Amino acid sequence: MTVYRFKSRETGDLVMLRPHGKRLLEIIGKDPETPGVLLAEDMPRAIDAIRAAVVADEAHQKQLVEEARARGEPEPQFDSVSLRMRSAPFIEMLQRCMKEKVEVVWGV
Question: Residue 1 pLDDT more than 60?
Answer without folding.
Answer: no
